[in-house]
Specification:
By secondary structure, the chain is an alpha/beta fold. The protein is 44% helix and 9% strand. It folds into 2 domains: 94 residues, Vaccinia Virus protein VP39 (Rossmann fold, 3-Layer(aba) Sandwich); 95 residues, DNA polymerase, domain 1 (Orthogonal Bundle). The chain contains 10 helices and 4 strands.
Length: 209
């Protein structure tokens, strides 16, 4: 499995360690392990008898973290799971109490920079946007099947996009001609529907994405 090297150093690591003050022997849950930046530092603090539970929905990043933490003198367990599945994870690990829970919400830099996720309109890639491969429907599936009103409501509720109706109408018209399968395709449709964006304003394609 090819795992990109970029995008795995947390920017507020020192402040987080000072705030949660992990100690040897503690049981810590990293809800959003990503590429293991926080996890590696936490493992150093709780060794040798601590336990670190590492969760992430992204199997690629989780494998990267597993390799990064290999050889550390602390027990680490890895689960491909969303933090919403916490109860199932704790039951599987046989853990009843936690000393520290860390959740660094958001996407990782490597996910934004990799075309395979389809998260960036500045890099053409498949219109996927799934971090968790267990999710059945991709962004392309939604674009292809949602009725115009539902598309508009979704764009407005998630992005607060004032041109949501116009954009949804343009998407529906475009998909009648050909499937929308690439991020560059969708970006062009959105930009055309939203019109010119003044210099310094957020790209309409970024808002919609």
């Amino acid at each position: 499995m090819e795992i990109p090297e970029h995008g795995h150093e947390p920017v507020l690591l020192r402040q987080i360690l000072e705030l949660i003050d992990p100690k040897p022997g503690e049981v810590i849950l990293d809800c959003t392990t990503g590429r293991g930046g926080h996890a590696a530092a936490l493992a150093q603090r709780i060794k040798p008898n601590g336990l670190l539970l590492c969760l992430d929905t992204d199997s690629v990043n989780l494998e990267y973290a597993r390799e990064r933490l290999a050889g550390l003198e602390v027990k680490c367990r890895f689960f491909q799971a969303n933090f919403a599945e916490l109860q199932d994870v704790l039951a599987s690990a046989g853990v009843k109490t936690l000393d520290v829970v860390l959740a660094d919400l958001g996407v990782s830099t490597n996910q934004l920079l990799s075309e395979k996720y389809g998260l960036s309109f500045s890099i053409d890639g498949p219109l996927d946007m799934r971090l968790d491969p267990r999710v059945k429907r991709s962004a392309a599936d939604l674009i292809a099947t949602l009725p115009e009103k539902e598309l508009a409501d979704l764009i407005y509720s998630l992005a607060e996009e004032r041109y949501s109706r116009r954009i949804a109408r343009a998407i529906v018209e475009a998909r009648r001609k050909q499937p929308i399968l690439r991020t560059a395709q969708l970006a062009e449709i959105v930009r055309s529907a939203a019109g010119h964006v003044p210099h310094g304003r957020i790209d309409a394609a970024t808002r919609t994405g």
